[in-house]
Amino acid sequence: MEFETLASGYGLIEAPRVDRQDRLYFSDVPNGGVYRRNPDGRIETVIPKRRGVGGMMFNEGGGLVCTGRGLILFDEKTGQSRNLFVEWEGKPLMGLNDLTTDDQGSVFTGSLNFDPLGGGKPIPGSLFRVDPPGRATKLWDGIEVTNGIGFSPNRKLLYHSDSPTGAVWAYDVTPDRTVKDRRIFAKLPEGWPDGMAVDADGGIWVAAVRVGEVMHFGNDGVLKKRIKFPSTMVTSLVFGGRDMMDLYVVTADNTEDSNRKGTIFRMRTDVPGLPVPLARF
User: Fold this and answer.
1) For the whole prediction, is pTM greater than 0.85?
2) Mean of the pLDDT values across residues 245-254?
């Protein structure tokens, strides 16, 4: 499949989101910063220094909800941020990674209990739901390395990449918005699952690190296609465009030209993506 290169020269790019003006937001995890690419190609700095942003979503009342050491709401107009979820049971969080939101505007995110860029042994983390204005509920324990997360179109399933397991897992979502019956939804033939996007048919598109691919699984968990990119570390992806059929893919490297480093690609898909609700903090 054909794709175009939109930008390069970054570290590990994560947390892509596309707003209603078709502007792409993304983070540079090791170097810090959240950036915005305009449709004309111009790139602006939105948050200059924040490191470790693995997940991001637009807020209904304005601003950006971002992960990092904890969950914050950033106000671009003032340049100030407000803590939403930064400690659990009286102890500071070490980190939060990918996130998604539900129809109530709550954030679902996973915790990191170690430095994933430091080469240390993973310490399993947890899955949390954070309700406005900042009330957290632990939903699951024992996630080896939390990554991409998203809901099925009917909101009855929550998909979750657990990277070292080589699988995307599914939970049943209960009426009280807790989860149960975690099981493997899709097993990657190679690589580890990282970021994820859900399409309108309930299929999932998964960034596969270590093999430089995007893998598309149907709503039955069966692998439909593998799309190779000039990268070994494809880290995340997001749907955008007026018809939601533009797929933005971000990486931490570029195998065509190593000097390009972290790169942003865009391609067209044959199925639209599923819109993700705004946060409501």
Assistant:
1) yes
2) 98
